[in-house]
Structure formats: structure tokens, C-alpha cells
Amino acid sequence: MPKFKKNSNTSQDIPTAALPDIIFMLLFFFMVTTVMRETDIMVKQQIPRATQLTKIERKSLVSYIYVGEPKNVVLYGSEPKIQINDVFITEDDIVGFVNTEKDKLDEVERDQITMSMKVDVDVKMGIISDVQQELRKANALKILYSTIKRVAE
Amino acid sequence: MSRGKKKLPEVSSGSMADIAFLLLIFFLVTTTIANDKGILLRLPPPPDPLQEQLDIKIPDRNIFTILANSKDKLLVEGEPFEGSMDELKEDVKKFILNFGKPTPEGIEVYNSLPPKMKAFVNANGRDPESSDDPTSLKSIVSFKSARGTSYDLYVGILDAMNAAYNEVYASRVGITTEEWLGLDRSNSLQKEMYNRGRSGIPRAISIAEPD
User: Fold this and answer.
1) ipTM for this prediction
2) Domain range list for chain B
3) Domain positions in chain A
4) Which residue of A has its CA nearest to B154?
5) Which of A67, B20, B79, B148 has an alpha carbon 20 to 30 Å from A34's alpha carbon atom?
């Protein structure tokens, strides 16, 4: 057996001095991109997929309406419900909601308000149609059916 | 500097990485990537009780009707439709680009089309029983759902109708549909392209209230 003498002085450790810097970089990335969710969504939200998506240019003009079967079926039943901010509402409250949302905007931008409809795939069109009729009454005519990008097979 | 200087006191930074890791994991878990994309739709203004309902007569050949019932079955142009959404999109596209009996504006639109699309029109279109031309009120895509239609199907059909129009617009200016959807209208060059694609072919999608 020949004798191999290991006499190199190089250390075998990977230098970890730069590790904190790398982690900090990642940390800042996530801190900047994070949007804290302000509402607790109480309805099921499985968003449908589509291909022809448009992006909203001004996020400040968007208000959200969530529609779906309540997560807590025991308490709220299994019929689809409309949720706005943190509460369930009926169709009749939509006009009032749109008006409060419009009041938050500048006067010139009030017609531009976009209602983003986040609707679960299992919901039927009846309730959506009712919501849209109310939105027409409230003069919030721009709506966006929130969808996820479907990748073509 | 004296040679016998004492060593400076140091804060040990070995656990810095651990602290940063902890924060990193916290933000990783709480992050929700905002999803602000979707299909934009403009609702018609509320009916004005003072204004009389205008009754515009549009011949049946100029309307492409899609009906969906509460069992999610489709009736397209009076025939039950079993195909995929892609096939529906192709049918809508053929309907828009039919040029059965073009008006002078329609002929102008036809002349502005690139050769590839002219070939498409001559191969698939020219049906006197289908739309006259793509200009306003000469080809309308109408969709009516029932109250029991699922939202999933509704969005699918809306998507197919929009896809047909976007494909027409995009191939008119010679770009892909993806590029068309990504056009930035605040940029004057891209806005010009957008207007060129849409000129003469309004997006005539009519969505009836479900009953």
C-alpha cells in the first residue's frame, strides 16, 4: 500500500460568512413582495381558469366581492353567499357597499371603479346575475372575473 | 498604535443567519402572491325608464347564438354542441371573419387584413348564411346562460369568445395572442398597434341576463 500523505493546507469548509447576506437578500425580497391579507375569506375559493387574462392597471380602483359556499357549513349553511370585507351580505346591501367604496376614491375616478369578482367554480350563475344587476343599479359597470392563468396543454 | 493593543470587543454574528432564517420562513409562509388578473367585462348601464327601448332588427345570420342551460349543455347556432372550448373559439372566429355580404366598410376591413387572414376568410368564410362582415352590428356574438349554469362554464365561454376576438386582432397586426394581451396602452407605439388591430372590428359580445 503506498502511503499518501495529505499535506494540503486548504480547509475543506465552505465559507459561511456570506450566508447571512444571502438570507437577508431573500428576506428583503419576501418582505417587499408580501401583501398582508386584510380580509378573512369565509367562503370557498377555487378560482376558475382562463386564458385571456387582462391585468388591472390601478389596484386602488379595485374592490373585491367574494362569492362561494361558506367554509363553515354548520353555521351558515351550504348555499353560496356573498362576502364583502369581513361580512356576509345580501344582494340588497351591494349598492350601499359600492357607494362607500366609491366615496373612498377621487371624484374623477368614481366611474372607473372595478369590482373584482372572486367566485368559486361551484357557484351557479343565478347569484352572479343578481349581483351584476345590483352593480348596474349602483353604476359600477366595470367588473373583472378573477381567474387564474390556464396553461395550454 | 501601540503594539499591545487589546482586542476590540465583538458581537458574535454567528447566529445572525439563524435569526434571518427565522424571519425568512415567517415571510415565506405568510406571503400570498397577489392574483389580480381576470376577464374584464363592461356591464351595460342600468335601463333608463324614460327612454324607450330601441328595437333594432338584426338578421339572424348576423348573430352567433350560444345558449347554455342549467345542466351545462350548450346550444350553438341552434345545434347541440359537444365539442371543446377551443372548437367553440374556432367557430366564433369563422363567424367573425365570414364576410358573407360585406358593406363598403366591411370591404375596407377585408382589404386591410394580412394575406394569411384573407386566405382564412376565403377558405372558411363567404357563407351567405353567416355574418355579413365584422363591422359594428353586422356580426354579434350572443351568449345566454341559465340561472343554473355553472360559473365555471360561464367563464369558459366568456374566455372562448374573447379568445376568438383577441386572435383576430393579434393576427391582424402580426403578433401572437400572448403579445396582444401584453400590449401596454400607455406606450404610444403599442397603443397605435392596439388601435390598428381593433379598427373596424368591434368586440361585439352580447351577454343576456339569465332567466
Assistant:
1) 0.77
2) 62-208
3) 49-149
4) A125
5) A67
